[in-house]
Design a protein that fits this description.
By secondary structure, this protein is an alpha/beta fold. It has a single domain, classed as Rossmann fold (3-Layer(aba) Sandwich), CATH 3.40.50.300. It is 51% helix and 17% strand. The strands form two sheets. Strands 2-6-1-7-8 form a five-stranded parallel sheet. A hairpin with a 5-residue loop joins strand 3 and strand 4. Helix 2 packs across helix 4, helix 2 packs across helix 5 and helix 4 packs parallel to helix 8. It is globular. The protein starts with a strand and ends with a helix. Bound molecules: cytidine-5'-diphosphate. The site of cytidine-5'-diphosphate (CDP) has 16 residues, from helix 2, helix 4 and helix 8.
Length: 214
């Protein structure tokens, strides 16, 4: 079984998908984490263009059993779970994710990871491109102010301080690049169920999804 959960930054995709996975006993896969890792590679190894594509082609990305993400390049394996959640990566990632070749490589990795098990995958193009035939598709949205507030709490938990205004700007800019890019833009699939999470609790969103997929 494949469940696709798409939506813009801070719409609650990851939090909700992680919990739905637990309750249904299936695997949660965070596609954005792989795009963030591509941006991390770009910054860490100071590569871009063709060289970045070569690095991503050679890299291995895999999730541990508690959802932690590992990156292997040239026999060097590191856990990147926290390193990819910084404002610097958030700013870089939509540019990296606009590249057609990067998208093809990440899409291939995501499909491989889902070959042998039931998964709930969150992202921007899961229901439209990665798994157009997914069994269930959801599209989460929320006002940009609410989404920025949520992201502010995430950053606070990591000891990172950013103003609400700066976060609204970051989120709006990222949504704009993600929605307007040529390849697999952020877009609701025609057959996805739309959920506006602005005034819903996490538990309420989880209930809507599990009620439809159980
Ligand atoms: O958690 P948040 O919603 O902030 O973002 P994310 O899911 O970690 O994704 C980070 C970025 O990766 C997005 O802003 C997109 O630029 C890109 N992305 C994408 O292009 N396609 C996906 N399926 C998932 C993420």
């Amino acid at each position: 079984m494949i469940i696709a959960v798409d939506g813009p930054a801070g719409s609650g995709k990851s939090t909700v998908s992680k919990e739905v996975a637990k309750r249904l006993g299936i695997t949660f896969l965070d596609s954005g984490a792989l795009y963030r890792t591509c941006a991390y590679i770009k910054i860490k190894y100071q590569v871009s263009g063709k060289e970045l594509i070569d690095f991503v082609t050679l890299s291995k990305m895999f999730f541990g059993k508690d959802g932690e993400l590992f990156l292997t390049i040239n026999d060097n394996t590191e856990e990147v779970s926290k390193k990819i959640r910084t404002p610097q990566i958030a700013e870089e990632v939509p540019k990296v994710a606009s590249d057609k070749d990067i998208r093809a490589l990440v899409t291939e990795k995501l499909r491989e990871m889902s070959e042998t098990e039931s998964v709930i995958m969150d992202g921007r193009d899961i229901g439209t491109h990665v798994f157009p035939d997914a069994d269930y598709k959801f599209f989460l949205k929320a006002s940009s102010k609410e989404r920025a507030k949520r992201r502010m709490r995430d950053y606070e938990d990591q000891g990172i301080t950013m103003s609400l205004e700066a976060l609204i700007k970051e989120i709006d800019e990222r949504d704009k690049i993600d929605s307007e890019r040529e390849h697999a833009p952020l877009k609701k699939a025609d057959d996805a169920i739309e959920i506006d999470t602005t005034h819903l609790t996490i538990e309420e969103v989880i209930s809507i999804i599990t009620a439809r997929t159980n």
